[in-house]
Amino acid sequence: MKFAHLADCHLGSWKEKELQELNFFSFKKAIDKAIEEKVDFVLFAGDLFDSAYPPIEVLKETFGEFRRLKENNISSFIIAGSHDFSASGKTFLDVLEKAGLVVNVQKFEIKEDGKIYLLPTFYKNVAIFGYSGKKSGMEIDDLKKIELSDIYPFSILMIHTTIKDVVGDIPMSYIEKEILPLANYYALGHIHKVFEKREKNSVFIYPGPIFPNNFQELWDLECGSFNINEVERGIINTESFKIKLKEVVSLEIELDNGITATKEIISKIDKLNLNDKIFLLKLKGELIVGDSGDILFNEIEEFVKKKNAFCFLRNISSLKKKEKDFQITLENLEKSEEKIIEEYKKLSSGNFSSLIDDLMHILSLEKNEDEKNNIFEDRVLFELKKVLNSKGILL
After folding, report:
1. Contact present, 246 and 276 (Cβ < 8 Å)
2. What span, in angstroms and rounded, lies between the C-alpha atoms of 197 and 206?
3. From CA 294, how far away is CA 187, in angstroms rounded?
4. What distance in Å separates the CA atoms of residue 255 and residue 268, rounded to the nearest whole number?
């Protein structure tokens, strides 16, 4: 038996047209490989689409790829992920299923004891179980209650979630894999990294995304990936395939001067071969002179275009303006106050500007010892009225 395992396709995710198309071409290449390898079936472990309601153009192209699988007698099994999941329970995955192109394997019964019994979908003698991902890791509490309805010669559990082994330092919810019911193959999705772990007769696989889904993923992964697995005499042989359609060129520059940054950046880009490549520019550092608004990104973008890059993305989240140290003292505050008052006097006209010194003096009055609050307030108001009335301002 041979089967492919895809996850986190996120079709329709990129706003940049070039990368959205590259995302779909990566998906198409994975389907090409599955057909070429004559797999028996393909598992799609969540987030086929980037939303529950993808654009019609994305749907049309996706339907075409699933039709190719069907024409080659390759079955497709699917679950929803945190992106294409809908609280209403209705997504375009249902449309794919009604068209006879996929089978959604999320089938379960909730027992009186609160346990969730997953029901199998069969491919010959293989039992495939599934439970969809949800927003914000809300599926994790459910997964702690799931059980498989029976034991079968070979079982696959498809879930879209995070297991503890891949969390690392990432602050996110997870489930310990030991809590999950026993299966031979765990078809995982949600975490965008390639991960494999074997324990006894079980294997846990995250195949990685079909295509990186943001700037940092492009920087780290450069391309997408998926798995093709073969089972012989109960032994699962796994192979990860990378889908590298375009080379990624990454450039990181540390800056301290926003005024001269444009020239410095262009000078470094000029040394690179960007022809038909995805170019990623990451700027970092503390700007002592000028700020990020002084960097002429339009000029940089035009220069990159002249070097015939396939696509250009920039990231300036680590570029900060250096804050000047300022020691706050009573002397500083008094000088600042005096300066503001003098500036106001110069700019204003009329009787009120001549009252500023007297009013400031009254507002600086302090409460006498044992003086009650209401008596102190009346005293301040009396002094204020006296000064204002002298200029014909009545309260």
Report:
1. yes
2. 9
3. 49
4. 12
State the CB neighbour count (10 A cutoff) for residue 370. 6
Residue with tokens 């990860």: 240
Give, as one character, the DSSP assignment of residue 190: S
Domain boundaries, the chain: 2-243, 248-321, 330-389
pLDDT over threshold 70, residue 336: no
Angle at 312 between CA 311 and CA 318, to 5 degrees: 150
pTM attached to this predicted model: 0.80
Helices (H), 259-329: 261-269, 297-306
User: What is the rounded distance in angstroms from the CA atom of residue 229 to the CA atom of residue 73?
Assistant: 18
d(CA 22, CA 313): 14
Q: Which helix H or strand E contains 40, and what residues bound it?
A: none
Residue with tokens 């926003």: 258
d(CA 313, CA 283) in angstroms, rounded, equals 11
Q: Is 355 left (phi over 0), alpha (psi -120 to 50) or beta?
A: alpha
List the structure tokens of 76.
């497709």
Tokens linked to 143: 């997964």
> Do 102 and 44 meet the contact criterion of CB atoms below 8 Å apart?
yes
b/e 70-96 (16+ beta carbons within 10 angstroms → b) = eeeebbbbbbbbbbbbbeeeebbbeeb
Structure tokens at 263: 């020239």
pLDDT at 180 over 90: yes
| Residue 393 clears pLDDT 70, i.e. is over it | no
Q: Which two tokens stand for residue 182?
A: 């026993």
Span 2-243: which CATH code? 3.60.21.10
Question: Which structure tokens are listed for 40?
Answer: 């028996």
At residue 175, φ and ψ (nearest 5 deg) are: -125, 140
If one compares 197 and 376, the residue with the highest pLDDT of the two is: 197
Q: Give tens-digit pLDDT for 6-25.
A: 999 999 999 999 999 999 99
